[in-house]
Design goal:
The chain has one domain. It contains 2 helices and 8 strands, in the order E-H-E-H-E-E-E-E-E-E. Strands 1, 2, 3, 4, 5, 6, 7 and 8 form an 8-stranded mixed beta sheet that branches. The protein is 21% helix and 31% strand.
């Protein structure tokens, strides 16, 4: 079972709010949260730039420390954690800058449809504010 919904980030300083609003709309429509977000490398670069402006929300999956307190080097984000859901970052270079697709895939394999390429595994996640 696969569900999809598309969205656009017009102001990258609000990217996390846009993801959360779209994930909530996705849940309201499908009664399940998405588990994958597809976007281009350039979109992820912009997201990462703005994410670093909130270092307290960048948390290492290895030791649960923030980007400022963890002993692990920061090499980018692997996912976005919202209240009750996690969006794994995966690439789709066909999407233009700012465009993204939220996907719920019951059995994601990260090697074929609907995910074109798995994003590089980074040990850091971005936790949404409460």
């Amino acid at each position: 079972m696969v569900f999809k919904i598309s969205g656009t980030i017009t102001d990258f300083s609000l990217w996390d709010d846009v993801f959360h609003q779209k994930a909530t709309a996705f849940y309201n429509k499908h009664r399940v949260y998405p588990n994958i977000v597809l976007a281009s490398t350039e979109t992820y670069r912009k997201i990462d730039l703005y994410a670093q402006m909130h270092p307290d929300r960048l948390v290492s999956q290895e030791d649960n420390g923030t980007i400022e307190t963890s002993s692990h080097p920061y090499e980018g984000l692997s996912c976005f954690v919202g209240p009750g859901y996690t969006l794994e970052f995966c690439q789709n270079e066909k999407l233009s800058v700012g465009k993204f697709t939220l996907v719920y895939d019951e059995t994601p394999d990260f090697g074929g449809e609907p995910v074109e390429d798995e994003a590089p595994q980074a040990p850091y996640v971005y936790k949404a504010s409460a």
